[in-house]
Design a protein that fits this description.
heterotrimer; A mainly alpha; B mainly alpha; C alpha/beta; B: mainly alpha; two-stranded antiparallel sheet; 11 helices; about 75% helix; globular; C: alpha/beta; 6-stranded mixed sheet; 4-stranded antiparallel sheet
Chain lengths: ~350, ~325, ~280
């Protein structure tokens, strides 16, 4: 039992935190405590948690710096919107339609992951980073100029509005730079389920022979090869799994708003997700969950500070990075905590004696 | 040859001449924007080569430089050359300050941590600029007062900015090459970039060398900012970020860490961008630029002029 | 091996048949023919020929910079040879990746220890067992019964290997925090976990004290006897090489200068010259 706890305690805690947070939010929401705007954050938070956890699989566990994660999110988002629009009228159950859209978003993003992974994963370090950035921008660029319409004949694709050639009664789903008209299908419950699914996949993967192989490659590529591990194949597994999860999260995101445009899925969003991962701790899944939730809410919570909120966010980011990494800062923190501990102990000793005396009497 | 044939031939020739001329014009425009990328990329490449970090805030230093020169000419009414110098001074100080406050404490920690800090600095600069100068775009008047050169009866125009940008980028490249090759501090920089520990053991002050590199990189960013806004005259807090990413791409394209590589990469990137806008699909120019980058890296994983380093087993 | 295959510049060597009695008539585990590699214009290894029987312990010695580790890197496909061929259990490894060569049966350790420093000793060995753990990706993801069965078996075998190398008590310790000598033994355990038919040890005794080295000598023999595999080692500790190895190959400037039993090598003038330099009076 003790051994089991030691091995699985952290995973258990991760699930527990997510489930408790969900229950608390549900209760607060039903009690009517939450304002409309706070409720509006719930689904995006779920989306960003999934994105952060999946990116952590690539950056933290596999050790490859990817700067194009938002591209997969975008692919998933638009695939999801298109699928949901196609199934409208075919399937009446909205939740089922949402789930199918998410599954489709995951599959298409996964295919994009394979196509991108083949060239990208041959590169190393900063070159891999710049190429993932490039692919993210390419995906954004393509989605941003894609027109998709639907009519009686089926789906039409084009890169120019006038080439769409929709028949009478046809409907445009995706309109290039204008984005797509989504449909509000997403629910907090599905978002929560997606987080659980993501945790299940990522944690199980990390704690299996696949995960060991991936971590081994990160720790020492040459040694991993020398014990018979196919490096590219396992980097690919991590990369594609992360892409699939990001695609599913993207579909949920796309179906949460009345409209989505490709500019949302650019480099800056990729960077935001990366910030969640690094601040939460590389390879630390629970850390990603918490960092994504807190850092998404933080700028929103500081809305009352108007123009100062983003600059404060930037300062918080820099200070947190310095505090967690700088040896000097660490030393200072150690000295301060030691001092506090010491003075607290002294304080307690005094009061402890007094308490002891009182007891004797 | 009949009369109609002849006139068709003449028209054909004229069309051909026009296509050739428009090709040359595109080339010139491409080289011009490419030269700006090259100057930014030179800053990126120097900092990367010596401090081994991706300074994502570099693009935002460019923006600060442009704002400073804008303020000096517009509000103080001083001549453009003074504004350039002022921008260089401010950016140099800013570069040293950023390096000292945000990057120096993180020497020796994983590069990803430094990268995120650089992103924080980038956010900070953008938002600080927004607070100071507002988010509305400003129209930046060109600092270049040279008359445009007109060729082929005005069919090809080489503006003063183009001349100044190209000349400046070449001068900067030559100066940097001489600096790193001939001067004592330049040699120290090369030593630090090769092997930081060994350089330290040889008595080189690594911290000071890195600070100097940041100072030089930031001064270059100021020049780049002025030239960028002279070419593309809208100035806002986010002006630097996309050219920054482009220039970073250019540096990787040419082989990051290599000075001629940054120059080559910048020019090529500018030309590819302009050509894909002129001849392919303008809406896909981003995708085309990045696609070319990927293809190059697949064939030459260390960039065009970069050195491939094999890990020792 | 035919004698005329040897390049002409080679020093004449008295070749005795080094194969152990029990290896005779069997396919050699490693058969290297005329191997060579150039880096740029520089020839690092040239005309390297040797065979190793299925249960032979052989040594590769030579002065610093003689090309010993380069030969190991060639044998494990870290480098692709410029010339010649390498047969592992009769199969040519030309163009194969390091991982594939390992699956053919070649495992190795590294001169500058390469453990997975962030993982426990046990996990290091389990990574070595990667290809023998029979459990699909889906079973792992969905935690199906095959996963638990495979993990249980893997744990058991990994512990057995650690015990074999005398490392059972540090199974849960992070590899990076172990002392040097222990790390070297853990690397051997990890290499053994891949079920190799030959194991290449690159300076296994480097950084060990005399007691540890003594212990290592016994362990090397025990590895051969228990697993019935071949061992090929690079080592500067002559005491270890002369005591453990049945056949020795000496290289200098990337070429073989002598081959033979420890006795023959000890008295070979070419070897003495390579190590001590030419006498001035000669």
């Amino acid at each position: 039992m003790k051994n089991w706890l030691k091995k699985n305690g952290k995973n258990f805690a991760t699930y527990a935190v997510v489930i408790i947070a969900f229950i608390v939010m549900q209760v607060l929401s039903n009690a009517g405590v939450l304002t409309r705007s706070v409720k509006g954050y719930l689904i995006p938070i779920c989306v960003y948690i999934v994105l952060a956890v999946s990116l952590n699989l690539v950056v933290g566990i596999s050790g490859e710096l990817s700067l194009g994660h938002a591209g997969f999110m975008g692919v998933g988002a638009f695939t999801g919107v298109v699928i949901a629009a196609c199934l409208k009228g075919v399937i009446d159950n909205d939740i089922l339609r949402l789930l199918l859209a998410m599954a489709g978003g995951g599959v298409v993003a996964g295919v994009a992951g394979v196509l991108i992974g083949i060239p990208v994963l041959r590169l190393r370090g900063d070159y891999l980073a710049i190429v993932t950035l490039a692919f993210g921008e390419i995906l954004k660029n393509i989605i941003g100029n894609l027109y998709i319409g639907k009519d009686a004949l089926g789906l039409h694709f084009a890169f120019k509005a006038e080439n769409l050639h929709l028949a009478e009664g046809g409907k445009k789903i995706l309109e290039g730079p204008m984005g797509a008209a989504g449909e509000k299908l997403a629910t907090f419950g599905v978002g929560f389920a997606l987080i659980l699914f993501t945790l299940f996949v990522v944690l199980n993967m990390v704690n299996s022979k696949e995960g060991r192989a991936i971590k081994a490659i990160r720790d020492n590529r040459i040694a991993a090869e020398s014990v018979g591990i196919n490096v590219t194949a396992f980097k690919m597994k991590a990369f594609v799994t992360a892409a699939v999860l990001a695609g599913m999260a993207g579909a949920l995101y796309g179906l949460n708003f009345a409209s989505v445009s490709a500019t949302k899925f650019d480099f800056n969003t990729s960077i935001d997700i990366l910030v969640f991962v690094v601040l939460g701790g590389m390879g630390n899944i629970l850390g990603s969950v918490i960092a994504a939730a807190v850092l998404y809410v933080l700028p929103e919570a500081m809305r009352s500070l108007y123009d100062y909120r983003m600059i404060l966010y930037a300062i918080v980011l820099i200070v947190v990075m310095l505090m967690t990494w700088s040896p000097k800062f660490k030393q200072m923190v150690q000295i301060v905590t030691a001092w506090i501990k010491d003075s607290v102990r002294k304080l307690f000793k005094k009061s402890g004696k007094e308490v002891g005396l009182n007891e004797e009497r | 040859m009949t009369e109609t044939d002849l006139s068709a031939f003449v028209i054909d020739c004229q069309e051909r001449e026009e296509t050739v001329l428009s090709f040359i014009q595109s080339l010139i425009n491409g080289i011009s924007i490419g030269a700006v990328y090259a100057i930014i990329a030179l800053g990126y490449t120097m900092v990367y080569g010596i401090a081994k970090m991706l300074n994502f805030a570099h693009g935002d230093v460019i923006m600060v430089g442009a704002y400073i020169s804008f303020c000096v000419t517009q509000y103080l009414g001083l001549p453009p050359i003074v504004s350039v110098l002022a921008a260089m001074v401010v950016c140099t100080l800013l570069g040293i300050l950023i390096e000292g406050l945000a990057y120096k404490p993180l020497r020796g920690v994983p590069s990803l941590a430094v990268l995120i800090t650089a992103i924080g600095v980038s956010y900070f600069l953008q938002n600080a600029a927004q607070l100071i100068w507002g988010s509305a775009p400003k129209i930046y008047p060109s600092v270049v007062a040279i008359e445009p050169v007109q060729l082929f009866g005005g069919q090809i125009v080489i503006t003063g900015q183009v001349i100044v940008t190209v000349v400046a980028s070449v001068l900067i490249m030559v100066a940097l090459t001489l600096f790193t090759g001939k001067t004592k501090i330049g040699k120290a920089m090369r030593a630090v970039s090769e092997d930081r520990d060994a350089a330290q053991l040889m008595g080189i002050n690594v911290n000071r060398t890195i600070s100097t590199t940041f100072a030089i990189g930031s001064a270059l960013a100021a020049i780049a900012g002025v030239l960028l806004c002279s070419t593309v005259p809208t100035l806002m807090p986010t002006t630097g970020s996309m050219p920054g990413i482009r220039a970073f791409t250019a540096a990787v394209f040419g082989g990051i860490g290599s000075i001629p590589g940054a120059m080559l990469g910048g020019i090529l990137l500018g030309v590819i961008e302009t050509f894909s806008k002129a001849y392919l699909a303008s809406e896909f120019s981003d995708a085309i630029v990045f696609l070319v980058l990927i293809l190059v890296l697949l064939v030459k994983p260390a960039g065009l002029l970069g050195k491939q380093v094999q890990e020792k087993v | 091996m035919k004698k005329d295959n040897y390049p002409k510049h080679m020093v004449e060597v008295t070749t005795t048949n080094l194969m152990r009695e029990q290896d005779k008539g069997k396919l050699p585990v490693l058969d290297v023919r005329n191997l060579g590699i150039d880096f740029g214009g520089l020839t690092a290894v040239d005309g390297f020929n040797m065979t190793i029987g299925p249960t032979e312990i052989s040594g590769l010695i030579g002065p610093n910079g003689a090309g010993k580790t380069t030969i190991f890197n060639l044998l494990t496909s870290v480098y692709q040879p410029t010339r010649g061929s390498i047969l592992v259990n009769g199969i040519d490894t030309k163009g194969m990746t390091t991982a594939k060569v390992n699956r053919l049966g070649v495992a190795r350790t590294f001169q500058n220890i390469r453990l997975f420093t962030d993982m426990s000793a046990l996990d290091n060995v389990k990574v070595g067992m990667h290809n023998s753990i029979k459990c699909g990706f889906l079973s792992s993801l969905l935690r199906l019964p095959p996963y638990f069965k495979a993990e249980k078996e893997a744990n058991k075998r990994a512990m057995e290997l650690l015990e074999f190398m005398g490392l059972a008590d540090i199974a849960d310790v992070k590899a990076g925090s172990l002392p040097y000598g222990v790390q070297r033994r853990l690397e051997i355990a990890r290499a053994l976990a891949t079920n190799p038919s030959i194991i290449l040890l690159d300076e296994p005794a480097a950084g060990m004290n005399p007691t540890e080295t003594e212990e290592l000598m016994h362990q090397i023999r025990r590895i051969r006897d228990t697993f019935q595999i071949a061992i090929f080692l690079i080592e500067h500790d002559m005491n270890l090489v002369m005591n453990v190895c049945e056949g020795i190959v000496v290289v200098n400037y990337g070429r073989i200068i002598a081959k033979g039993t420890p006795e023959q090598i000890k008295n070979n003038p070419a070897v003495i010259e390579a190590y001590l330099g030419k006498k001035e009076t000669d």
